[in-house]
Amino acid sequence: MFDLEEELKKLPDNPGVYLMHDSTDAIIYVGKAVNLKNRVRQYFQPGRNVSPKIESMISKIASFEYIITDSETTALVLECNLIKEYSPKYNTMLKDDKSYPYIKATIQEPYPRLLFTHNRKRDAARYFGPYTNVTAAKETLDFLIKTFSLRTCGKKITESVKDERPCLYYHIKRCSAPCRGYISREEYMKNFENAVAVLSGNITGVIKDLKEKMNEASKRLDFEKAAVYRDSIANIQKISEKQKASGDGNEDRDIIAMAVSDDEAVVQVFFMRGGKMIGREHHYLTGVYGEKEEDVIASFVKQYYADTPDVPRELMLPCEITDADAIAGWLSEKKGRKVSLSVPKIGEKEKLIKLAKKNAELVLAQDAERIRKEQERTIGAMRELSGYLGLYDIVRVESYDISNTNGFESVGSMVVFENGKPRKHDYRKFKIRTVKGPDDYASMREVLTRRFEHGLRDAEKNSGFANFPDIILMDGGKGQVNIALEVLAGFGLDIPVCGMVKDDRHRTRGLYYNGQEINISAASECFKLITRIQDETHRFAIEYHRSLRSREQVRSVLDDIKGIGPKRRKALMQYFKSIEAVREASAEELSKADGMNEAAAKQVYEFFRREQ
């Protein structure tokens, strides 16, 4: 038994991390402390002044544990790691895990390349970004590679490979073929350095160099080449203009601001590199209700920069934050040089903070509207369905369909929607076992019988078949509804069953329920949801049926040959690529496939000759 008073007395004066557990031993909160004894004891003092969220957390603490560290900075890093690992209920959590791309310059290679990557590593390469517009980043990369004829392959270029023929990229003028020796290393490096200069925003020298080449081409009357240089200059200037200039120097900073609504917050980050605004991104935080702004921003900074290799020299924040000195020290250690935290009060920097906050508020407002619309098309549509049928609070819908082609390999599908959204890991497929020929009613009876047999047998579990629906939606009308009701009655189950009423063009126009047709407006969210469920049920059944049909077609041709089993069938298909090629092959050619001997090859050869 955990004795709270005794354990509080044992707390050390060291820095460290503490973990609060509830009665089920789940970790519900992780925090760090300069002094564990003082910090943890504060939670249990009678006159404590904490937020409602923390008060609720304290009421659920059944035990705690702690980890001693050698410094506050080490405690901060450990806190970040533990929060990420356990996702405690009462910690402010960074919801999204965005991975923005970079352009990587492999300057460590003899003939360096520019690459598109989402992973920034601690290597000798140089990284540009992060880019929040993936399309723009790819377009920029493609333009630079094409303009400066940079290689993209990872081939190791040595003297011994200079005799190889150049690849297609050389012939379409996208590579200068250093592997073939068509360009000197000095000239290649000049092109590469120009490309890097463009990424760095230093385009003056690049433009000058291209203008000189354009003029030289014009003097040689090579106007086509001159036009290429002219277009390159225009494109480079366009790329540079897209980077909105801000500030008066080579600032390298992130601007951070926040907007809050109830228990959610949006944090907006502007990236400034080399004095230019290169992008922005926003992140969602949960569990912020009742929290102070300085605590929320501190939580964001710790979680965000724990996984981000691109730490700027300065973070501009909307307020002084908790643990500012420790966080600045940790970021400085992570970057390898001093990182400062500032709170602008006047001038252009304050305007940037206000701009970031305005963007965060806009994102939050737009997201609220998106969530509202999403709820209308999902939960709202389910409520509409409940209203049409006079049922209370429909959450889980199961829909069934049968698919066959002229009686071939009939299959059934079970699709599940919860709160108006597909729950794909609860989908189930049924290969019809007891019915011969295209009898949809009998097939549906088998599917439903097997489904609820499984469900009743696995009633102790809480997933898949063990979860029964609030309503069953049949793709057919009265006939299929009656089949479903008979199956349910046989198991003693009382689950509402609803069928789809079709028009002359086999389009759903309403529902059949309790012996009556119910018309539903085609403009309603309920109707749209029913259509999505119907389409998803058809898709799932047809895909399964198609896969079985495809397998059967291969089986019927090769598996009927004596001596040809699954291994030899696979070997033949891998070697010849198609049944037609197998059919046309000679016995000698057939014997070349893996696992095929002379006798097996002869069997296949004679089988197809008998067919003819």
Walk me through the structure.
The chain has 20 helices and 21 strands. It is extended and about 75 Å long. It has five domains: 4-91, GIY-YIG endonuclease; 102-245, no CATH class; 252-373, Nucleotidyltransferase, domain 5; 383-550, Nucleotidyltransferase, domain 5, CATH 3.30.420.340; 559-611, DNA polymerase, domain 1. Strands 14, 15, 16, 17, 18, 19, 20 and 21 form an eight-stranded mixed beta sheet that branches. Strands 4, 8, 9, 10, 11, 12 and 13 form a seven-stranded mixed beta sheet that branches. Strands 2-1-3 form a three-stranded antiparallel beta sheet. 30% of the residues are buried. Helix 8 (204-219) runs antiparallel to helix 9 (223-242). It is of the alpha+beta class and 612 residues long.
Summary of the model, kept short:
The chain is an alpha+beta fold.
Write the layout of secondary structure elements.
Elements: H1 4-9, E1 16-21, E2 27-33, H2 36-42, H3 52-59, E3 63-68, H4 72-86, E4 93-94, E5 102-105, E6 114-117, E7 126-128, H5 134-147, H6 168-171, H7 185-200, H8 204-219, H9 223-242, E8 244-245, E9 252-261, E10 264-273, E11 276-286, H10 293-306, E12 314-316, H11 324-335, E13 340-342, H12 347-377, H13 379-389, E14 396-405, E15 408-418, E16 421-422, E17 428-431, H14 440-457, E18 471-474, H15 478-490, E19 497-502, E20 508-513, E21 516-519, H16 525-558, H17 566-576, H18 579-584, H19 587-590, H20 598-611
Parallel strand pairs: 9-12, 12-13, 14-18, 18-19
Antiparallel strand pairs: 1-2, 1-3, 4-11, 5-6, 5-7, 8-11, 9-10, 10-11, 14-15, 15-16, 15-17, 19-20, 20-21
Helix pairs in contact: 4-11, 8-9, 12-13, 13-16, 14-15
